[in-house]
Amino acid sequence: MHRHRELCARAVDPLEIAAGLEAQGFTDRTAARFRHRDVFSLAEELYARVPRGSETPAPPAPPRGDTDAWVLAVLTPGAAAALTGIGLAVTHGPVRLAVGATGALLLTAALPYAVRRGPFRAPEGGTVPAARLWTVWLVAYAVGGDGLLTQVLSGGPDGPWDLAPGPVLALALAVAPTAWCARLFAHRARRRIADSRGLADFAAGTRPLLLGTVTLQLLALTLLLGLTGFSSGALALGALLLLARLLTVHGFHETAAAALAAASAAEALALTSVLAARVPVPGFDALAAPVRTLVDTWGPGAVPTLVCGAAALGLLAHATGSLVRASAHATP
Prior knowledge:
The chain has 332 residues and is an all-alpha fold.
């Protein structure tokens, strides 16, 4: 009680104490030394025994206006994408180019606004600034990376290359269902803390909840990609961005940023290896062999699919261990 008095005094419920103890290394076996069957039972006794003054009241429930604000925020990217898609479909020539540029600016402004609200909001100091740059690169590659790689492999680039706005439109439209999935995961995980009678029990119940959340988001994104132009690379990118944001929101921002950086570096390496193969130095022509073989077999979309898919699987493996801990769902 004395060692963890500050944690117990500021807690608004026993669940916060349980999460805090687990974050400091407590397990159900540790709780047994204090004659409790699990960490949750120990936290309940600590909560009951440690006095709390009026200076630590329970936080009020968020007002209805705040909920409406984040709902509108996560709908904004989809609205901007839908208007841009309609504009691109009915215009031609310079007007179409202007519509595309305007839509890109709208999405650039809407996406950060949506990420800073509601279920996507990270804790104070819980972001890596460079992660935004890596995210921009990954989204930009989804638009023009396949066309650029095709031209580079054929000896170019020779002028403008083909762009594919469809995947980005689908990703923007998927912000709203993704936010709903993230909110559902956080809410259900908090309820699991209340219903669980041990850390192992909580982890066993939260792991399928996490996998179900990712599956729901992928199903929604697949449906949207079917409407805008399916791309396996965009599907893998959507999974990567969701898992990176979930980890960031729950306090594992460095892992998320590392995965985004690795995926960005791998895509950039695919392009630079083909360019480096043109250097008239013996042996350099072999640098392009892996990328050329991959593209010849599966097409240029195989590069972002493989890169983002591998990064997403790595984050999923990490999330199934870190996001099923009670301490990842403590009230901020």
